[in-house]
Amino acid sequence: MNEPAAPHPGENVEYRVAHLRDRLAAEELGELGVRAEMRAGAVVVTGTVPSAQCRETVLRTVHEELSGLSVHTDVVVAETATPDHAEELP
Amino acid sequence: MIRVAAVGDIHMGLESQGLLRPAFDTLPDCADLLLLAGDLTRHGTPEEARVVAREVRGLAVPVVAVLGNHDHHDEQPGKVAALLEDAGVRVLEGEGTVVECAGTRVGVAGTKGFGGGFVGRSAGEFGEPLMKEFVRYSRRCADGLRAALEELDRQGCAIRVALTHFSPVADTLAGEPPEIYPFLGSYLLAEAIDTAGADLSVHGHAHAGTEHGMTAGGVRVRNVAQPVIRRAFNVYHLHAG
Question: B3 contacts in A (CB within 8 Å)?
Answer without folding.
Answer: 86
